[in-house]
Structure formats: C-alpha cells, structure tokens
Queue: 2 jobs
Job 1
Amino acid sequence: MQEYLKRSRFGGLADQIGLHLILLIFSFLWFILQWGLCLPALTAGFSLFLLLSFIMRKARDGRLIRREKQLRIRIGGEMALERLLTADPSRAHFEIALLLSMRHPLTMIKTGEEGVLCSLRGEYLLLSFQQCPFSGQITADHVLKLQRAARLHHAARGILCAPCPLSAQAKDQASGEIGVTFYTRDQLIQLLGVINPATDAQLIALGKRKKMRATGRQWLDHILDPRRMPRYTLYGALLIGLYLITKLPYYILPGICCLGLAAASRCRKEKRERL
C-alpha cells in the first residue's frame, strides 16, 4: 500500500498555488492585451480569475469525491484480500464464491479444501482461491492441480482466483481440456472493495504512516520521480513563455529550474531502464 503514501501535502499545495498564479496572470494578460493597461482591464481580469477559480474549485470538489470513493474501494479491497490470504482455505474459497455469486448466477453445492463446487446455468465448475502473496506467481502446477480436482468432482471447467501474477505456462495450461478462467488481483480487489470499502479509521491509520521521517535519498527519489517529468516540463515552458511575453526577469530563474528538474528526471528514468 505504499502507493497511497507518495503524495505529500506540500506538493499538492504548491501545485494549487502555481495553477492559481497561472490563472491570475492569464486573466490579467487577456484583458490588458485587448484593452491596454487600464482600470477596467484589471477589474475584468480579476473577475475572470474569480470565475475560473470558482469553476476549478467545483470541478476539484467533484473529482475529490470520486477519487475518495475509488480510494476507499481500493484500500478496503486490499485489506479484505490480505485477510483471505491468512484465512482457512475452505473459508477463503467460500467467501470468494459468495462474492462472485453476487455478480453471476452461481449456485454453491459443496465446499472443500480444493475449492467450491458450483453450478452455473446447468454447468458444474470448481472455483478455487489460491492463497499466495503478491510477490509469488501462479504456475502451471497450480492450474494443473485445479484441473485434477475439477475432473475428480466431474466439473466441466474451473475458476482460479489469483491474487498474484500469472506465468505464461499457467495461461497455456489453462487452455487444456478442462478450461480454467482467471480472476486477477485487480479484479478481486475491485469486487471485495465494493462490499468492504475502507472506513475512516482505516484511512486515518494509513495516513499516520506518512509521519515517518524520510531520508535524503528518499526525498531525492521523490523529487526526481520520472513521473514528474511532464509536469516539470509544462511548468518550465509556461514560465519561459511568460518571460518572453512580459520580459519580467523573475520568470526566467524558476523556468530554468523546472526544466533542469525535468532533464534530471529524464536522466534518472534512462538510468533505471539501463539497470
């Protein structure tokens, strides 16, 4: 879950200040270029800035609500999946089968160590949840084991719920006489998160982990993250453009800094790819 802890409050605040500054400069320049430097142009520019800020705030509020819902589903689904990894195998098979029965017309017939024997539109199938960590891998042996169990229970095919990546051999083995359908980790997290969204207490507990002091290397990795390169490039280009338009000297230094960070992020990306 470290992916939820990467965004810093200072980074978000800096982005908001930068965006509002760009809107303010754009609003004033638009009317100054149309009417010249006069009081009506400044008043109209400030009014346009307020209107754009209001529209942006409303759009941000709606986006935050959607992102919060998606985040609760994602975190809740991951927590529920982690609990299933340590649960009794029969219990884990049953809960996954119960979950899938909410989306498909499954009828559970028998629960065992190998999985849950179900009926789907008159066809027997064996549903199994593989309890392996995300760092593991589903191999052809896991698929073959499910196919043997399906043949033993006279099931036409199998469903393997895999919380870890699938190997190429596993996918090839799944296309045998007894076909196997896979449910991936992302699909399981989405299904589990819909019925088990993260609570406020869980989100607060996750947020407390952000208070750990980062080392200098971690700060450097955070600043020079290759995913920040497009943002650095955009900010640098806008600041250089403002310098060329207004001839004001205090735009040139931040613009050069942003372009320098973009170049450093790109070099760091190429270095990682070579490694």
Job 2
Amino acid sequence: MKKLFLIIALFILQSSVCLAEENLTCDGILGFKFRDNYSQVMEMSRTNHFDNIGIYKEPSRVLHVVSKGTAADKKAKLYFELFDDQLFRITICFFVPSENVNSEFYSLKNDLSTKYGKPRCEEKYFAIWGVETTTGDRAFIFLSTSCNRLSFLYSNAALSEEAEKYIEAEKENKNGTIEPELIFISPEIK
C-alpha cells in the first residue's frame, strides 16, 4: 500500500506537467463522478453490481471503499477514496493473467488514446492523460503495469492534493502511523 501511495503522490506532482493542452473533459468513469458523496458511491456500486469487501477510514476525514466486480470486461478490485465525503480517486486493479498484462495494457491505452487523445506523459509501462471535468476540476488518468498487474487510476488533482496533505499532517501528529478505523469487512475476508 505504501508503494501505491508513493506512485500516486509522484503522479499527483507530475499531473500539472501532464495536463492536456486542449480542453479534454471527463466527468466520470463507470457512472461515478468526482465529488460524489458516500451514498452516491454506494448506489452506483450497487448499480454496477460491485460487491463491497471493505470500508475503512484512515485517517478520520478519508474514507476508503474496497469493492470487487467487473470493469472493462475484466474482473477487478476497485478502490474508491473520499475526502470530506467527496469522491476524489478511483483505482482499478484488473485481474489479468500475467502473460496477458502487457497486451491488455496496450489495448486499454489505445482505447483511452482514442477517447482522450495521445497521453501527455508515457513510458513503456505507464501513460498519463490530463483532462478537466465539466465543473473545471483538473483530473488525470493513469494507466500502468507493475509487478505483473494492470492498474487504472482516475483522480481529481485538487482534492487528491488536499487529501494527501491532510493525511501527511495526520501522520505527523501521530508519530508517523495512522490506525485505520474498520467500518465493514466482508465475511469472506475475515
């Protein structure tokens, strides 16, 4: 999880460099929209037939909802993050056989490039698109492969930055550690 946090933090910092020159817009994914509240996220999860497998707060103003389901015709684990009851980040980790990760990466990259144009930043195993929402929020879409995993991140830059600052401040106040407050865990995980 720390590795994922570091990757996300790096790309939040790079997002201002990678934002699109043209005004590409993206209001949401899978029916979820930035700034949706907890009730809206839960309703859309039910609509998409996602099974919530865990809900926790870490720290008190950041809510994490972990679900499993199907996205882009692939089995996936989905992570929804809300700050002050506003959705700011969706991460999708696809369950793809390791031998297919690279081909699936390039397939999704081509689909995203068709929809949002050429990535603003790209390397062999990641690509970033900068977009705006119709409400004027900056956002970025990050697609990557690492450790034979295929991941997709959709994040509101301003809310992400505010949440990350809050989390870091909370860690400093608590000697570098924050204990998650478990709200729900699926019986299949216990």
